[in-house]
Amino acid sequence: MPNRGMFTNRELSWLQFNERVLSEAVNPDNPLLERARFLSIVSNNLDEFFMVRVGKLERKADMGRSEPDPAGMTPETQVREIRKAVRGHVERQYHILNRQLLPELRDNGIGLLQAEELTSEQKRWLSQYFDAQVLPVLTPRTINPMHPFPILAAKALYIAVLLQSDKGGEPQLAIVPVPRALQRVVLLPMGRGQARGVLLEELIALFLPRIFLYMAPLAQMPLRITRNTDFVMNLDDMDNLLSEMSKNVQRRSYGKIVRMEVSEGANRRLLDMVAGAMEVEEDALFEVDGPVDLRFFMRQLCSLPGFDHLRYPAYTPRVNPRLLVRESIFRTIRGGDLFFHHPYDSFDPVVRFLAEAATDPQVLAIKQTLYRVSSHSPMIDALARAAQNGKQVTALIEVRARFDEEHNIAWSKALEKAGCHVLYGVPRWKTHSKVTLVIRREAEGLRHYVHFGTGNYNDVTARIYTDMGVMTCDKQLGEDAAAFFNLILGYSYTFPMREMVASPYQLREAMLSRIRREEVNAHDGRPCGITMKMNSLSDPEMIAALLSAANAGVPVRLMVRGICCLNYRENKNLRIFSLVGRFLEHARVYAFENGGEKELFLSSADLMTRNLDKRVELTVPVKDAGIRAQILSILELGFMDNRKLWRLESGSHYTRVPRAAPAVFAQEALIRSPDPLLDKENPAV
Hints:
The longest helix has 33 residues, at 75-107. By secondary structure, this protein is α/β, with parallel strands linked by helices. Strands 14, 18, 19, 20, 21, 23, 24, 25, 26 and 27 form a ten-stranded mixed beta sheet that branches. Strands 10, 11, 12, 13, 15, 16, 17 and 22 form an eight-stranded mixed beta sheet that branches. α15 (507-524) runs parallel beside α16.
């Protein structure tokens, strides 16, 4: 293990990233409703963080495990430091909500009303709405010896009520689930350009006497819990994988509670009764200064009609002019590789690639890996249609993709019914690669067409995540793609890959050897340099290698959106940045100067131990010189940003890159031009 002083704790680094997301909620460059959306994203991120990362650490601590992480922190220490950091984080989140966003939203016609602000006419309307739409779907539950405390679902909203019977006696506890099927904000009838409403839990609280007849509500309290969803499974048993995954999903309903959120000012007796009944530890209780669960902004209020001026301007994704010609997409690909940079470039050609393959009589086989797909995926439709048309269709759907397990199991069964050969994953490892192979009969023989990329085959996230992909019929890459599918089918030694690199087989050594080569070039006075863009950097060996290269004189530039476990010390050859903007930066790009013969790879893998050693990933060289130059130009633009870019200054501390003139918005520039650095008329640079 290298010196622990090199490393920052992974979880605390992630919280630093979420702080950068939170900062976008006060960034004046963002329209008002987009700032509110960032506030919701912070809450959504924290949910997954507690369910997965905190849950895993608490399980380790409960088992008595004390192995330190690379930064030297034990699981117990990490949990303690996480909770301390999150309390400050959430306090800032609600300060922004109450002091900035809610007043500004109200000034712009969007308001959340409290009960005391309602007019008599509004109360009458809400009363009718409650009786007609809410009361019929409520299922309150009184807690007594005959009805013990129920198992509450994770991330659902409940109202705990302390009741006094009109017959006297000890007060009773009751739980009212807030219906998920109803909109969280009940909007009142208003004129154009106005939106006023009350939160559903406050509406229910207003009319509690109608729910509990012959009982008087003494106190009420909205609450929400988060449970541990990280469970150990036997990943070697593929025969029982589907049933094991189904059981795993069900376990989430009763996993250990790792967080309970309530609004500040809750009745202490009521709070103690609820916490005691659910065995919630004191340090797992979070009291917030406002509504529990702020995701309703992005789920409802941020999309309200009539407020376009408070959102980012709409734009239309580009389509490469070559793809507008009326010809087969396969003929277009034969004319030269195609590059896609989503969401600036439309995802439709990727869908078209699979759709044409499904109906083309010359296509013999289609093979594809799927990790996360949309709820109405055109990819699934195309694969099913291809199988029905007699194509040999192989689809690997990773049923262990966290929080998409049920979704992917259902898609797997649907494709099997359509006649596809479906793999649920590879034993021991998740398959996270993004690749499609189409084998087509042509006059010269069989030709392999390949699409590979950095992002999921998901038409929804392709509109909000930045990812890169290439379509090619390069002979060697086609053969490598075929070898890759043989690899995940179990023929690992029969069909070697020559240019593509797969993990967990070769990627670690491939990356290390290239980093070391740049270090040798620096010693020899040859051109050297490393530029990388990724979501996360946490692998100790990779961090040590990059630091060694920088210390040897190699210019190292890293664009790491999220987790960065490199504990930064001032180094003139090492610069680390993070860009948090309108779109979620998701592409993984690895570029090496290589003595002047530049090498550039697109990858599905971050430089995390799990991606290098515990997942099936694919890293692919970009061979087309024009595409390689365009990607390098895009990377350069990111480092030039002076509105959304952060720089790691010391330890794990980030500061915004100083604003300068002219303003450089990398993402906005890319909306306007595929190569903004060469477009002198682009107003965003």
